[in-house]
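Late entry, alpha-D-galactopyranose complex.
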Amino acid sequence: MDKNTLIHNAKSVFHDNDNPISGAYFAPSRVNLIGEHIDYNGGYVLPFSISFGTWLVVIPNNLGIHRMFSENVPDKGVCSLPVDCFIPAVPNEWYNYPFGVIKEFYNKHFVLSPSDFYFFGNIPMASGLSSSASIEDVTAIALNDITKARLDTLSLVKMAKSCENNFVGMNCGIMDQFAICFGKKNKAVLLNCNSLDYSYIDFILPDDVTPLLINTNKPHNLIESKYNERCEECAEILKSINEVRKDKLIYLCELNSEEMDRYKTILHSEKLRRRFNHVVTENMRVFETVEALKAGKIDRVGRLMFASHHSLRYDYEVSGIELDTIVDIAKNTEGVIGARMTGGGFGGCAISLVKKNKVENFIKTVSDKYPNITGFSPSFYLVCSEDGAKKI
Ligand code: GLA
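Prediction complete; structure with ligand written out below:
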């Protein structure tokens, strides 16, 4: 979306407002290459931001209220919201995401004067590519600029996460908000979700290989899914381990696999042992993937992606027939190096690495087989890693 069209569209929605704009902003979406469901366990993750994203234009108004419009939910029309932010989230409303961020700023005494917000996004709906974090981050960078709060990027990421945890009510970890703000072209972000230290890993694949996203088109809704249940199960495992330890753990990912094996015996439920197994082994797979990427061993990266999916499917149980079908087809299709679900799961997208000259055949194979098994038809997107959120 070019800036002039964006501003023109914003001005036509808020046609009664002649003020000059405060600014225009963009935040991408993200794909996680590996390290799934371990950000909230203090593990390592390896996401990258992609070109799908959310655009925002803010225009100050003279009305004493904030007004919001999203081009993606036009039938909701323009929503009016109080500048003092004293209202709770309204279940399932899209504007909870930007409004919760405005509230975060308000609570820190950075009060935005009454403004009109125009949003436009091209992230496929409910695709698990983190449209919610994209809206939160684009709002956070906009408010930081407009209110002259001068907060550093990590503070903005934490406020966006806090909006999601405390206002929207989703217990997500920090990966999405972080990846969207810190993304960099041709890089993946290796983030330690315990210390929040990070580094950039070259994400330059061999010339003949490309990442390909496959959207199951089974909508995923993490608020209603078992996401929060998984967070609680991990908290329960941590509690049981800490009961028998002198130096208490903060996160499960502080343990390596030998320590995990020792502690497994104190967990009385087979289900919790499987959850634990996923968390610790997935963390190890992130290190191995980074090593493999650095060494140019792309086949090894692919095997780790398949192993990650297997663990998410059987041990952590956050996949589903749609994602499993795609990964199963990927395993049996020539030229597919690796594939796995990406993001929260229960639908949404799978990420695959595919030989460029086999992409067409892979798309055809999935398109032929997947709808018969699942009743959904898939979509495909060729992606690469792009820069993070910015003023445009
Ligand atoms: C969602 C959450 C993230 C992360 C992933 C799973 O995208 O928002 O914090 O937990 O699921 O890795």
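The chain has a mean pLDDT of 96. Will revisit in the morning.
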